[in-house]
TrEMBL record:
Organism of origin: Medicago truncatula (Barrel medic)
Subcellular location per the Swiss-Prot or TrEMBL entry: Nucleus
Keywords assigned: DNA-binding, Nucleus, Transcription, Transcription regulation
Major localization class: nucleus
Keyword DNA-binding: yes
Record's GO cellular component terms: nucleus
Entry's Gene Ontology BP terms: regulation of DNA-templated transcription
InterPro entries in alphabetical order: WRKY_dom, WRKY_dom_sf, WRKY_plant
Domain of life: Eukaryota
Residue ranges of domain WRKY in the record: 87-152
Listed name of the protein: Putative transcription factor WRKY family
Molecular-function GO term, any one: DNA-binding transcription factor activity
Keyword Transcription attributed: yes
Amino acid sequence: MENNYSMLFPCPPSSSYQIPTSGLNGQSSNAFLGLKPTNNEISVTHDDHEDVKGEEGSVNVIIDQQDVKKKGEKKAKKPKYAFQTRSQVDILDDGYRWRKYGQKAVKNNKFPRSYYRCTHQGCNVKKQVQRLTKDEGVVVTTYEGVHTHPIEKTTDNFEHILSQMQIYTPF
DNA sequence: CGTGTTTGACCTGCGC
DNA sequence: GCGCAGGTCAAACACG
C-alpha cells in the first residue's frame, strides 16, 4: 500500500501527544516517540540527507520502508525514522527503556554509532544513535519498528518534551 | 542479584 | 572469492 508519511510528525497538541502512526505495519500505536534534548532545538531530517544542518525549526520526518530479511523467514518491511537533534548528550530519554547491544565505528565519522533495543518483552524496536563529524552538536537517532506497548515512563517529563518540541517547531 | 554496558568476535551484504 | 563496512551476539564486567 502507498503511504505518505511525510507529515507523520506534526507537533501534537499539548493536551494529547498521540501521533498518528496507523498504516505503519498495519499497526497503530500511541506515543510513538518523544525526544528530550537537554538543550537547544530539535530538528528532524531524512537519514539520506547529507546536508545535516538543515534550517532551524524545520521539521522533516522521513520514514524509510526497509526490507528486513532473516534466515528462513519471509521479508518484513520495517519503517525507519531518522531524527536529527541538537544536543550535548547522545542519550535522548524518550520514555522507553533501551538496552545497548552494540557499538561500531562508522567510516568517515570519528564518533561511534551505538545500537539500542527496546527491553520490553516482545517489542523489538531498535534505534541507532550517532553523532555527526561535521557538526558535533548534532545527534542523529534512527528508530526502526513501532513499539507494541505503551510508554514506560509515565512522566510529566514527556509532556515537557513535547511542549519543548512545539516551541522549536513552526507549527 | 537484576539490569544494563562494554567489546571483540562473528555474520551478512555488497562491490570489485 | 576477497575485503570492507555495517549490524548483531554474547561473555565478561560494572553498578545500584
